[in-house]
Structures are given as C-alpha cells and as structure tokens.
Design goal:
Largest sheet of chain A: 7 strands, mixed
Strand order of the largest sheet of chain B: 2-1-5-3-4
Helix content of chain A: 25-40%
Strand content of chain B: 5-15%
Structural class of chain B: alpha+beta
Oligomer: heterotrimer
Largest interface: B-C, 48 and 47 residues
Chains: A alpha/beta, B alpha+beta, C alpha/beta
Largest sheet of chain B: 5 strands, mixed
Number of helices of chain A: 21
Order of helices and strands of chain B: EEHEEEHHEHEEHEHH
C-alpha cells in the first residue's frame, strides 16, 4: 500500500465541466486521482479521462527541453519535424532570444498585421491573459484567437446578439431542478460525462423529462422521453417549428414576452411558414414529435436547454443557436434555477480563455477592441501611449490561416493548440502552414502543428503550474502545481513573461507593460482590475471552492444563474430567421452526410489523450455507419473503407451501429492517422466565422487492410 | 418539518424528523462506526457495524438508516453493542484481507477485535483480476460493502457493469458471466475505485508502483498496443 | 452451442414478456431455461436486452437462484432432499445410489446429457422421507434400490395424510387432488367474498380485526391492522401478495393448501384486495413446488372465467387480477421484502425495514403480503363472521392452526388443531406417538429457524401466548420429531449448512455468521472441535440474532442456541465430552 507524499487539490484539465481532483503523489509521480465527494461541481464523480488520463505527463515522447529546428525553415518549403533528430536542444536563454529576434524582425519589417497568435483553451486564464496582452501591447495586433472559434462561436454571437451575454446562463448541476430539458447537438454522455450523470439523475431520480434532438442516437437517447432524429443542419426548421407550435397554441409566456423581449410580432410572423409539416419535410422528424416536444417544453414549470457543438458548428451556426434562444424567450424558461440557455463548453478553459481576451474582437471581459473607451482603458493599464493599441478587429483562427501569404500573416505563435488537427479542410491548412515565415510552438508534445515550428518551447503541464480555469458554468477554479515540471519545461505564464521582456527590450519603446509577476495570482488580480466580472475573483477566495462569475467585488458571492431580472442587453431580442441548408448537401457522387465529434476516451486533437493509456481503450478512428447503410453498401462491421470528400480522403474501419441514422456517418476528430478534418468543409458562418464541421458530403468505398495507418488495429470494447 | 426529541447515551437531543440516528448521535458527540455507509451512496444498512440498542426493541438497530423518533432511548456503545461489533469485525477479518483498509484496522483495534478469533476459517481468497489498462480488482480484499455496484448503477454512473455472483459467503462482485471489463458496459470512470474502502479496486498504476515498477516501466506496461503485440 | 443459434422461439416468447420490463425477468428466465435446458450467455443476453435489464444484473439474478442453471444441465433434474428429516431417513444413500446409477457426480451432466443430480434444500415432502423431486414429479419414501426406477419412473402422486381435531382450513385437503372450483363452491366457497363485496372495505377490515387473525408466517402481526395500514397509505396502485414461498425445512402445510384447495387462497386474496383497494395480486410459489404452481395457475384461470377475478368482478364494479409467479430456489425469498425484490426481477435481497410493505412494498407501493395459511382463514372469517370464527381456539389465539408433523412418529402428516391444545395431544393422540421402540429425544419446532422442545415441554399449550411463555417458537408450524438415536450435532450441522447455503449475503452478520457457524458445527459434529468453539458458536449466534438485517439471519442461530442451552455438554471439547455423544 502506497502512502502518498502529498495529495494536491486541483481542477481537471479535460472538458468544460471542471471536475475537482485530488492528485495522489509519490516521488513526484501521480499514481492515483480521486475527487472530493463534497465537490459542488462533480460530487466525487469523474470520467475515464479525469480519473486515469494524466499519464501523458510522464510519456517519454514529451518535450522537456527547448528545441530548435536543425534546418532553417523557409516560407513555402516548411516541413513537419516529427522526429527528434530533426531538432536540436538549446538552452532557454538562447531559445527565448532567438524567438524574440525572429518575431521582432517580422514585426519591424511587416508590421502588426503580420503577427498572429493562437491562445489556448487548455491553458490557464493567466496564461491566456498574458499571451493576448503580449500580442496586443507589444505587437499592436488583435490577431488573437483560440479554438472557441471552432466550437461555440456561433452560440456566443447569437447569445450576444439576443441577450448580450454568451456564457451558460445556469449551473449545470441545476438540471435536477428542471422538469423538462432539451439536449441537442450534444453527445453529453461522452463529451460532458459528469453533466450527463446529473442529467440521468434528473430523469431517473427527479422525474424530469428529456427531449433529445440529434441526428445521432447518442447515449442520452436511452434516457429520453422524446428523440427527434433530425437530418444534420436542419435545426432552424425543427426549433422554429417548435416556436410555431408554441405561438399557435398560445403556449408562450405572454407576460415574459411583453416585459422582457423585443420583436415578438415580427418574429411571430416569421415562423408562420415553419409549420411542423414543413419542418418534417426538411428535417425528416415526424411532425407529431415536433408538436409534442413543443408542448412538453412550453408547459414545463422549469424548462432548460443544453447544447453543444452540433448547434454552432454549421455555416448557419449562429442561426441554429438563435432558434434555441427564441424558445427560451418565448416561454420565459430563463432567469430561474433549473432553466436557461446552456451551451456546454468543450474545453476545460474555453470560457476562461474567452473571458481573458483570447479573442480577436475583444479585450478581456468582452470589451470591444473598436470601442475607443475600452481601448483607452487598456492602454492606461498596460502603459501604452494613447492610440497605441490597434482599434482594428483582428482575424479569427480560420482567417489567420487563410491570411498566411506574402503581405498577410507572416509569424504565428501557437500555444497549446493544434490547428493541423482542428481546422476544417486540413489539406488547405497544411498548404497555409507551409507558407509561414516563422512559427513558434509552445506545448508539451510535438503535435501535427508544432511539427512545423522553427522553435519549440516546452511548457509545463497543468499539474506543474499554478493558475485558474473557468469551467462551463462560469466557475473560476484553482489549478495547482502538484509536481515539478518535467525536465526544463516551464509554466506558460513564465515563458510568456520572459519572452515579453526580451521583445520589449528589442522594441525599445518609451514605456513598457508590466511583466515581472512573481506568481500567477498577480496576473489574475490585474485582470480583475480590468474585467468587472472578475473583480472579486481572488486566489484566497477560491482555495476550496470556485466562484461563479460575475463576481463584482471581494464580497460578492458569485452568480449561479444569470438574467433573473433582466438581460445585459436590456430586453431579449427575437431575430427572424430563414432556413439555409448546409453548404454541401449529399448528391449522387457523395451520397452521405459526414458529421464529426468526440468520443469519451479522447479529447480534441489528441495531444494529451493519445499519449496516455486512454489510447488503449480507443486506439484508432472508426467510421460509424447505420446497419441499413452498411447492408446497402454491402459492408460489414470492421471492414476497412476509404471515406472521401471533395477535399480529401481517409482510410479507417467501419463500425456498423444504430448510433447514426441512415444517410449520416460519423468520424471522431482525434485521430491524426485518419483525420476527420481532411474531409470537412471550410465553409464559415457569416457572423461567427465558425466552420461547418457537422455536415459535409462524403462517399465511402472499400479499401485494403494495408491502407490503414496502423494495420491490424482492432476494437475489442464491448460497450458499443 | 417537525422536530423529535430523544435520548442518546443519556443525553437529550432534539433533531428534525427524518434525521438518522447516525447524525443525531453526531450531535451529542457519540461516534458510531460505519463500514458500508458512504455519504455518496444510498445507505443499505448492511454491514451492521453501526447497530445501536434502542430500548424496547428486540434486535439492534442500524443507525445509518434508522430514523430518530420521539422519546426513544438509544445506547450507541453498551456492552451488547460493543460485543456484536467486535464479533462482526472478527468474522470479517477472518475471511477477507483487510491489510489495505486502514479505517477497518483502526476499528479492529478500537474494539479489541482479535483477527485470529476464528481459526480454520474459509477465506475469500482469489486471484487478482488484471483485465484492463485502467484498474485491477483484487477481490480477496473485497468486504462486499456494495458501494462499487451502487455507484456503477443509480448512485452515480448509470452504467450497470457490475452486479453480484453467488450468494451468502460465496457472494462476489461480478460482471456479466464474469467477463473481462473491456467486454462489459464499463466506461472506466473509476467511480468504483473512488468509493472502495479496502484497496480491492485500485488504479493499475498504483498497483504496478507497489510492485516496484518505475514510472517509465509503468508507462510501458499500461500502453501496449503500439509497442507490444496483443496477447 | 449450435442449439442456441436458433433464437426464434425464444424471441417470440420474449416479445410477450418485453412490455412488462424487468418484473418479467424470472418468468422469462424460466421460459428460456425450459426451451434450452440451461441459461448460457447468449440466451441471458437476449433476455436482458428484450426486457431492458442490464446484463450484469441478469447474471446476478441467474446466479442468485439455485434453480437457474448457468452450466449445461440435463433435461431431467433429480433433486434429492437433504433436510434433517430426509437425512435421518437416509437421503445420502439415495443420492449416492442415483449418482452411481447415472455414473455422474453432483451437479454434473451424465454422459448422454439427459440427467443432472442435485441436492436440494427441504422439498416440503417431510411426511414421507426421504424425498426426491424428478423435474415436477415428487417421490416419497425413496430407498436406494429405487435409483433406476426414479430415472425412468412416471410421476405418481402420493397423498399426504391430513388429520386433526377440526377441519376448517383443511376441509378440502387430504384427497391428493386439487379441489375444483365447483368442489370449492359446493363447500361454501366464495361466499365470504360475496358477503365482503356487500360490505364497505373498512368494515371488511373491521371484521378481520375483530377476528383476531394474525399472520401465520412467523411474526404473528395482526392481519387487520396490516390491511388497515395499506388501505390508509397514500399512493398506488396497491398490491396484495400471497407468500407461497414455503421453504422452511419441515414445513409443507402451504404446499398442501396450494395443491389441494387453491380457491381458498384466491378468495382470501380477493377479499384482501377489496379491503385495501388493490387491483393486482401476486402469488409467489417457491421454485421447488412446480406442481403447486400449475395448480394455482389453473385455479386462477378458472376463477377468472367464473368472474371471481378480473374487471367488475361479480358485478361489484371492483377490479382485481392475480398473477402466479414461480420462485427459482432461494429460501430468503420467503422474507417478504426479498420476495418483492424477486417479483421485481432482482436478486432476493431483503430490504431494510422500515419502510414497511404496507407503505412501500412491491414496486414501492402500499402492499399487503400475507402467508398462504393466513389468507385461507380470511374467507372463513367473512363467511361466518368474526364472532363465530373466534369460537375456536383461545382468547388470545383464536382459530385453528396447521402443524406439519414429521420424523419419528407413527403417522406423519398435516394436522389442524384449535389453538391451545398441547404438543402431547398433537404427537401422541393425533400422530399416534413415536414409532415402535423409539424414545423421544427432542422436537424441533418451527423448522430450521426454530428451537428444540423436549419431554418437559409436551404439555405447553400450543398457542401464541402459551409458546411465548415457554420461550418456544410457533414459527411455521413445523414439528420435527427426533428419537434418541438421532445425532443432534449432525442435525445442527445440516441446519447450519442450510443457512450458509441460503444466506443472501447482504448483511455481514448473516453472510459471515452462517458460514462461521457452519464451519464450527462441522468441526464439532466431526468431533474435532477447537478450544473455545462453544464460545465462538454462541457469539456468532447472538450476533446474527441481534444484528442481522432480516428474519433469516435473525433466526439462523435459534436452533443452535436452543440446543446449546438444552445440551451444553455436547458442544464441549472432545476430551471433556460425555461418552454417550462421542
């Protein structure tokens, strides 16, 4: 029996739930993870990733010394260096000097617009705040973004337009107080496993009714009263038809609509054409199911809506999210416990990274870069001459990539992200990456993107640094240094500060921003002075339990649910919508709709999970196909196939399963050897600039075993 | 809700109706031992170590589930109660390996329970089940507190990978036809590990560390597909 | 395994069970086992998926009930009773002879896969030991020479002797045949129900309360009070359950009532249902009584035909129907909450009480659960009225009582006597006294969960109050008579083995205690006890009695503790033990 040297309380580095962890450590080795049963977030429960998926820290492939490419990389001829032999180890000082030299060189030559940075939804608030500060204050650019663009951008924009706030309105655990809740575009049981447990408990133990709207037969369907199996991309007609029914049957909350919303009359007219019959014709969902769902949700005492990326990841993602907002505004199911509009955030700190200003259009706290007063406020805080900060909205992630060209973006800094896995249409991404003049990667492994870098800065993992994460229900929680950083790796915040000081020196401006933080708490304090919602978030207040923003001052208790009295925008606004189909629809040549997403055992680009024993449980990609389609194609479970779209193709095994509906196939996004995003389309939502990951047209043809990236890989899991 | 007044170990106490004797006793500072009880799980009152004497009741009463009622007189640790607890502990330790259950060992010494009290007893010894990359199951250490089965089912995970085989002393925690975990509905959440009080369930990493493996050897041992042929 | 590929028949059966969900698990497993002979993985998977029961739980259930086979079993299963009375009559020799004849070991399949031989806990045939059950056919007074004929023998029903001072409950018993509906009606059957339906439900309860009827399952709780509790409890639908899981070794009264007078039980249930406003009832018959199960099923069908069950029964506007369930080999399911769990399709784990069945019983709803014998009294009470009913018996124990007399008496059988007669009257006047040349050593009253009486107790009046005063249990009405040739340690060892086998394993005192008790008694009976064994045995016994969760554990040591009190010397270490017992 092992006696731990210490047990360190911290927050899970995986999904947005933000589970509380206790790391049990012996000789700097984390041998066990438990969770306190009095945790308000997860009540002692964890999922497979939170419980077991942290051994990547000790993986021998991890980079623990600064690296520099042995051969100089040139624009247009940039290559991926996956092998360690292509890199040379250098001391930190040299690595930082080199990085500063090269960045300043590009900046001095090509100006602000040539600079861009990917912040990181996995890193801490402090890391993100500092990195956006570095690029804004030093390089005077707003080309600052992170993967929120690729997940909830559509939700964020819609929520901002309608009610002026983009976070989850309620606390996830409140679901047990709902009597009806809708889950749509979310495979909650696999992507937010702990919230799924609370949902299951709501159904099983509190008598709540669940309505699932999803083209896949996700696990939550097992707990659902109603399942509306829509065709991908038909959310607008389905939910608008629900609104149609609610209005037609006068099931809407007249008082709420009168007192707290604008534009009802116009909206009401706009949904007249969205009859259940019309929606059925487009979505394939039985009209009676739509009517029943509408009545069920409208008549609920406390109705709530939960959604994940199946809603926003469309070329009309903003519209999709807007239809959900409409339902809440119609029924008044918002502003009370057990209700609300709840976009489930995918990453541990995607909420926090957004709050911290890792956004091209916003400073920390969603203060617009083109708003003069905000700009002046940040100029004062960062010791910048008036007018020094750029007032120009920056480029989003996908735009940054497509702007990599002479005269466009020349130098890119990537902290912890992996666009070479996460961007749509990866073949295009690859061409763009190869055009870069200078690329810095700051990460723990050389992933598909970092492999293109000139210099690799080895970061400490989440267990090796201090900081805070903000989870999906806006709870700011502590991340603690449990073990020493492996090798020479360092906390991201430290790397950024050291680098910023070097850059400032090279820029030789009259005044410089502050970079000499002794510890991350000082960073959060600085952010709190600039972001009113974070004013009362202090390390000393969140030692044991996190605080839910907004926290207006040191005495404010935090905010479990929002909008009880009013919306930040005053009244909630209806926005009449038109149905727009997915950009690419199936046809004779590409007869299937491909949708993509996650599986329980893996996480996003796989930088962490694929270097963990988690990979044992789910070792490779598979194509989920409905048995009816499989028999039509004469394909068998386990057969090797090639999936092709107009943009690329991958080879993987088929898994015949009723989890997908006929005509729809699914590929998880985690597997570089069969990367789903080689197939996806880079069509963007016009407002949110989010790509359409959830629908593109593909065809499926037989392939040979030898064409598999890892021939012989079999799946033995029984739970599917 | 109304209050009820009762006497616990001679001390009067008033608690809200519905309060268990276990929490009522805490209020007067009487510590009642528990084994199967866990704040996170539906109480089953099955280990019976928390039994107390309620005057006028023939059998002893499990404090973790019995509710306080008006004017009852409760003895949390008289000679009878103490003797029953001791015998339960002695019977338990004669059949199960408690070496990694520090709380139980502490109880044993507090109640002067003699681990050798029942000689020539059948023990629930069985080989360690090492059938998945995440955790091992060493049912020689299992005290059948049921917590793992409960959290796998409605008390947390709603996954239902675990149930029982056999009955009586031969009861075991079991999967469907004793299949290896990867062939069951298990999602490897490890909720079961979180509530196991005896080390019967533990992360494979911890188990390998105990066996003296270094972290890099553990890594090799738990990540096999890419480097080792499948057995 | 090829046979299991053909799942069409199973699937068609399962579609019938599927709408019921989990509660149909035991019936579905019985049906599947009937088709395939045993329950391999593939079959269990089908059943679980059809009923929506997690597979681990399906396995848990299969492995809990001894009559569900998870290994290949023969089409013909020969079950040899190993309860004390049968043991005394030579069941071990019969078992060995059958095994030798078939050339197989216990629990194994014989060469052509037709036969399996098992030992069984009491088969409820104690009046003609040793007893053997060959599939559904019961055989009594079996001797080892009959091994071959057992294996080919056609069912022949033996008639149990039924006697006594009065024949109220047993009026229709003793003929070896079920009383048909017409027989029952001719003897005044269903008149009680007709009268009840003219009354208000609360008046029916009042009548039952006034009769002084108490539960005959062992706890002697006033039946009327129980009904009243369920009638007043909020929530529903409410249920009436007949506990026909008679498994107490030495007890066979319920079997006879089930097999020979099924309508009396049905009538009692309908009256109970009317009194508490239940619309559904279950009769849970133990798995070892397949014949009784069939008789009950047929009787329920007949009653339904005759409008005694169903919608608007007898034109009363009242609706009630009964489902007959078959257990699958688990003594603990006689415990009322374990029985509920079993009907719900789960392992037979007793629940913590309170809450009691009257408020949260079957499916969490208010439930009245009564023993067979109790329910058989109900029609009488309603028919003749409480006052007349009370004319028999004592003031505190009105009515009559059934006793199952077995062992070394002239005339083993079922006896109905008014409460208050003496044990001497029962054994000597009615059962003809001990067999020729036998000297009474002890009487085990109440079955395995009972206690020993001796010569000095023969004149105790057999009533609740009389037995309570003498410190004896009335229990199930089992009266097992041992003469002085019986090795009481071997009797105790067998009882201990029975409890160790039947403990459900839920609570520690019973799960561990029944095992430790058996281990100690095995040593003691083999005359190789260790120093301190007597102490240990008493300690284990009192711990089970005091601290167990349900009645099984609380009574698992009663016989042992009573023996220790009566004959302390036989538990002493070998060298100190008197010669007589060595």
């Amino acid at each position: 029996m092992i006696q731990p040297d210490r047990i360190v309380a911290t927050t899970c580095p995986y999904c947005g739930v933000g589970c509380n962890l206790q790391l049990h450590i012996k000789d700097d080795y984390i041998y066990k993870v438990t969770s306190p049963f009095d945790s308000v977030v997860n009540h002692g429960n964890l999922c497979v990733k939170g419980r077991f998926g942290y051994d990547f820290i000790y993986n021998k492939e991890r980079v623990t010394a600064p690296l520099i490419r042995k051969t100089l990389q040139k624009p247009g001829a940039r290559t991926q260096g996956f092998e360690r032999s292509e890199w040379g180890e250098i001391p930190w000082d040299e690595a930082l000097d080199y990085t500063a030299d090269r960045l300043v060189e590009v900046y001095k030559r090509d100006g602000s617009d040539a600079m861009a940075v990917y912040c990181c939804a996995k890193a801490t608030n402090e890391d993100n705040y500092l990195l956006q500060k570095m690029f804004r204050a030093l390089f005077r650019t707003n080309n600052v973004d992170h993967c929120t663009r690729l997940c909830h951008a559509g939700s964020v924009v819609a929520l901002q337009m309608a009610i002026g706030s983009s976070a989850m309105s309620n606390t996830a655990a409140e679901v047990i107080h709902s009597d009806v809740f809708i889950v749509t575009g979310s495979n909650t049981a696999e992507t937010h496993p702990i919230i799924a447990l609370q949902m299951k408990a709501a159904v099983e133990k509190h008598g709540a009714k669940l309505i699932v709207v999803d083209p896949r037969r996700v696990e939550m369907v097992d707990w659902a009263t109603l399942w509306l199996p829509e065709r991908p991309g038909t959310d607008v007609p389905v939910f608008s038809a629900m609104a149609h029914v609610i209005i037609k049957e006068r099931l809407y909350n007249e008082h709420f609509v009168r007192e707290r919303t604008l534009g009802f009359e116009e909206f009401s007219k706009s949904v007249e054409k969205f009859t259940p019959e019309y929606a059925e014709a487009i979505s394939g969902v039985d009209r009676n199911l739509i009517i029943e769902a509408a009545r069920m949700y409208a008549k609920a005492k406390n109705g709530a809506i939960y959604w994940a990326l199946g809603i926003p990841e469309h070329s009309h993602g903003t519209d999709n999210a807007m239809t959900l907002i409409h339902l809440a505004l119609l029924t008044g199911h918002i502003g009370r416990t057990g209700t609300g509009l709840n976009p489930l955030r995918g990453q541990n700190n995607v909420q926090g990274a957004s709050d911290s200003g890792a956004m091209p259009w916003h400073y920390p706290g969603y203060q617009s870069v083109d708003h003069e007063e905000s700009a002046r406020k940040f100029e004062r805080a960062w010791s910048i001459e008036p007018g020094g900060l750029s007032r120009k909205r920056g480029l989003t992630t996908t735009e940054i990539l497509s702007s990599i060209e002479p005269g466009g973006v020349r130098a890119l800094y990537i902290m912890g992200e992996n666009p070479m896995m996460s961007e749509p249409n990866l073949n295009h991404t690859r061409q763009q990456m190869e055009q870069l003049e200078f690329l810095v990667a700051q990460d723990i492994f050389i992933n598909e993107s970092g492999a293109y870098a000139d210099v690799f800065l080895p970061a400490a993992s989440w267990a090796e640094k201090e900081g805070t994460f903000t989870n999906t229900d806006r709870r700011v929680q502590r991340v603690r240094k449990a073990i020493e950083p492996r090798g020479q790796s360092r906390g991201d915040w430290e790397i950024i500060c050291d680098l910023a000081i070097r850059i400032e020196k090279r820029l030789s401006r009259l005044s410089t921003a502050f970079w000499s933080y002794k510890e991350p708490s000082e960073v959060l304090d600085e952010m709190g002075r600039l972001v009113p919602e974070y004013a009362g978030v202090k390390y000393w207040r969140i030692e044991r339990e996190g605080l839910q923003t907004p926290v207006w001052d040191d005495n404010h208790p935090g905010t479990p649910y929002l909008f009880s009295e009013s919306f930040p925008s005053g009244k909630g606004k209806f926005h009449p919508l038109e149905y727009r189909p997915a950009v690419e629809m199936p046809d004779g040549e590409y007869p299937f709709i491909l949708t993509t997403g996650r599986v329980l055992e893996h996480w996003h680009g796989g930088t962490m999970t694929r270097h963990s024993q988690l990979d044992e449980l789910y070792p490779g990609a598979r194509l989920e196909m409905n048995p009816a389609d499989a028999s039509w194609l004469k394909m068998e479970n386990g057969q090797v196939v090639r999936v092709s779209s107009r943009r690329g193709s991958i080879v993987l095994r088929v898994w015949t399963t009723p989890r997908t509906t006929p005509g729809v196939v699914f590929v998880p996004m985690h597997f570089a050897e069969a990367a789903a995003n080689l197939l996806t389309i880079d069509a963007l939502d016009p407002e949110a600039k989010i790509p359409e990951y959830k629908a593109c047209a593909v065809r499926i043809t037989p392939a040979r075993e030898e064409e598999l990236a890892r021939p012989g890989t079999k799946f033995e899991r029984g739970r599917y | 809700m109304s209050d009820v007044s009762l006497t616990i170990d001679g001390r009067d106490v008033t608690v809200p109706a519905g309060t268990t004797l276990l929490s009522a006793a805490q209020k007067v500072g009487a510590r009642i031992p528990t084994i199967c009880y866990h704040e996170h799980c539906t109480p089953n009152g099955l280990c019976r170590i928390c039994v107390v004497e309620v005057e006028g009741t023939r059998a002893l009463v499990p404090a973790c589930v019995a509710q306080a009622s008006e004017r009852i007189k409760v003895h949390t640790r008289n000679a009878r109660v103490e003797r029953r607890r001791r015998t339960i502990l002695e019977m338990l330790s004669s059949g199960v390996d408690l070496s990694e259950a520090p709380e139980l060992l502490e109880l044993m010494s507090e109640y002067h329970a003699d681990p050798t009290r029942f000689p020539e007893s059948e023990r629930r010894e069985q080989p360690v089940l090492d059938d998945n990359p995440m955790y091992i199951r060493d049912y020689s250490k299992c005290i059948l507190c049921w917590r793992c089965v409960q959290v796998c089912a409605d008390d947390a995970q709603f996954t239902y990978a675990l149930n029982f085989s056999g009955r009586g002393f031969a009861t075991n925690i079991s999967t469907f036809f004793e299949k290896p975990m990867p062939e069951t509905t298990c999602v490897f959440c490890g909720q079961c590990l979180g509530v196991c009080p005896t080390g019967a369930l533990k992360p494979k990493r911890e188990w390998l560390l105990e066996r003296g493996l270094a972290p890099n050897e553990i890594m090799r041992e738990t990540i096999s597909t890419k480097r080792k042929p499948k057995r | 395994m090829d046979a299991f590929r053909d799942l069409t028949r199973l699937r068609s059966i399962l579609t019938e069970f599927a709408p019921q969900g989990r509660t149909a698990l035991l019936p579905a497993l019985h049906a599947a086992q009937h088709l395939y002979g045993w329950l391999p993985e593939a079959i269990a998977t089908e059943v679980g998926q059809a009923l929506g029961v997690p597979l681990a739980d399906v396995y848990g259930v299969i492995d809990f009930y001894t009559m569900f086979q998870r290994r290949p079993a023969g089409r013909t299963i020969i079950r040899v009773c190993e309860a004390p009375v049968c043991a005394f009559a030579g069941c071990d020799a019969v078992f060995d002879a059958v095994c030798r004849h078939l050339e197989i070991g216990p629990g194994r399949l014989n060469a052509d896969g037709v036969f399996t031989v098992e030992r069984a806990p009491c088969l409820g045939l104690c009046d003609r030991p040793p007893a053997v059950l060959v599939n559904e056919a019961a055989f009594g007074h079996v001797n080892p020479a009959q091994a071959a004929s057992l294996c080919v023998g056609s069912p022949m029903r033996l008639t149990s002797f039924v006697g006594g001072d009065i024949r109220r409950l047993t009026a229709n018993c003793g003929r070896g045949l079920p009383a048909l509906l017409s027989d029952y009606e001719a003897s005044g059957g269903y008149k009680g129900l007709k009268r009840a339906l003219q009354m208000k439900p609360e008046d029916v309860i009042g009548e039952v309360k006034a009769s002084g009827l108490v539960g005959y399952g062992g706890a002697a709780f006033p039946t009327g009070v129980k009904w009243e509790g369920a009638a007043r409890a909020p929530g529903g639908p409410k249920y009436v359950v007949c506990n026909a899981d008679e498994s107490e070794p030495g007890t066979f009264k319920d079997r006879l009532l089930l097999e020979e007078d099924p309508h009396r039980i049905i009538e009692g249930m309908v009256i109970a249902a009317y009194a508490i406003d239940a619309s559904k009832g279950y009769i849970y018959v133990r798995g070892e009584y397949p014949y009784a199960f069939r008789v009950m099923q047929e009787a329920v069908g007949a009653a339904r035909q005759a409008d005694y069950l169903g919608k608007n029964l007898l034109g009363s506007g009242f609706e009630f129907d009964i489902e007959v369930r078959l257990g699958a080999g688990a003594y603990v399911c006689g415990e009322e909450t374990a029985l509920f769990e079993s009907i719900e399709g789960k392992r037979g784990f007793p629940r913590v009480k309170p809450p009691f069945p009257t408020t949260q019983g079957l499916f969490g709803s208010p439930t009245v659960i009564n023993n067979v014998e109790t329910l058989c009294n109900v029609p009488l009470i309603l028919q003749q009225g409480a006052a007349d009913y009370r004319k028999i018996g004592t003031e505190k124990s009105p009515g009559s009582k059934l006793f199952c007399v077995s062992g070394r008496v002239q005339r083993p059988g079922l006896y109905e006597v008014p409460f208050g007669v003496t044990l001497r009257h029962l054994l000597f006047d009615l059962a003809g006294g001990l067999k020729e040349g036998c000297v009474l050593q002890a009487v085990l009253l109440g079955g395995a969960a009972g206690a020993f009486a001796t010569e000095k107790d023969l004149d105790v009046p057999m009533s609740f109050e009389g037995f309570r005063a003498a410190g004896l249990p009335l229990g199930s009405g089992a009266v097992m008579v041992f003469d002085d040739t019986a090795d009481m340690l071997d009797v105790l060892r067998r009882l201990a083995a029975f409890f160790a086998h039947e403990s459900c394993g839920k609570c520690y005192p019973c799960q561990l205690g029944t095992q430790r008790q058996y281990e100690i008694l095995e040593r003691v009976a083999a005359r190789r006890s260790l120093p301190g064994d007597a102490d240990r045995l008493a300690d284990v016994g009192w711990t089970m009695t005091d601290a167990s969760l349900c009645g099984l554990g609380q009574t698992a040591a009663l016989a042992v503790l009573s023996a220790m009190k009566l004959w302390p010397e036989i538990f002493e270490e070998k060298d100190k033990r008197p010669d007589r017992h060595v």
